[in-house]
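Quick one, tokens below. Sequence please?
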């Protein structure tokens, strides 16, 4: 009888040890999985980002004559918050123009499908996420941006592309659709728009948008 009791106690002890060990293994496996997930998230956020933008200083609708263009201010907010590098699409074609002659020229360029030259260039293939921004001129981005799009149309396949605009009532207009067409194979996001007259006082709107993207 004594031997039988000893056998029962020994079996119970083994079961307790096995259960405890099994619980630790599951916990360790869960911790390892959590660590793996966190590492993946960190890697995704550490991917290189770029802001490509065109911004017009000088005479602008609603805000008057400005030294720094509305879109440049938003691009700087994005870089500050996300750490993204920048490439500004620069042309001197519109320098010193008053607002009315400028929009008339922009309309003519759009109607003719002109592609104005811009200065410098950049290798987009180095980046995982590319923000693309500009003002809305006649329902889409300025034509000089389409010069850039045409040159780099095949460079963003599999990349995340996030359009944004500054405007005075047009919102995103046709910009998102035009970006999708310009960069086939890219993962083009919904996009973000902000009034040009708000960019100097409503940084919080940009922060909220970027927070929604995980930044």
């Amino acid at each position: 009888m004594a031997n039988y009791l000893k056998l029962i106690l020994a079996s119970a002890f083994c079961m307790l040890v096995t259960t405890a060990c099994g619980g630790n293994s599951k916990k360790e496996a869960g911790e390892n999985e959590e660590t793996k997930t966190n590492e993946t998230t960190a890697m995704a956020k550490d991917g290189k980002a770029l802001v490509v933008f065109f911004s017009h200083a000088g005479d602008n609708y609603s805000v008057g004559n400005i030294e720094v263009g509305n879109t440049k201010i938003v691009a700087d907010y994005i870089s500050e918050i996300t750490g993204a590098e920048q490439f500004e699409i620069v042309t001197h074609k519109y320098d010193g123009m008053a607002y009315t002659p400028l929009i008339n020229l922009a309309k003519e360029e759009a109607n003719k499908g002109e592609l104005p030259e811009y200065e410098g260039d950049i290798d987009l293939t180095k980046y995982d996420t590319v923000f693309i921004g500009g003002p809305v001129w006649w329902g889409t981005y300025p034509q000089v941006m389409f010069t850039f799009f045409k040159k780099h149309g095949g460079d963003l396949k599999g990349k995340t592309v996030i359009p944004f605009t500054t405007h005075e009532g047009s919102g995103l207009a046709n910009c998102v659709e035009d970006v999708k067409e310009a960069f086939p194979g890219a993962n083009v996001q919904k996009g973000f728009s902000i009034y040009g007259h708000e960019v100097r006082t409503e940084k919080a709107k940009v922060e909220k948008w970027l927070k929604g993207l995980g930044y």
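The longest helix spans residues 2-45. Residues 1-44 have pLDDT under 50 and may be disordered.
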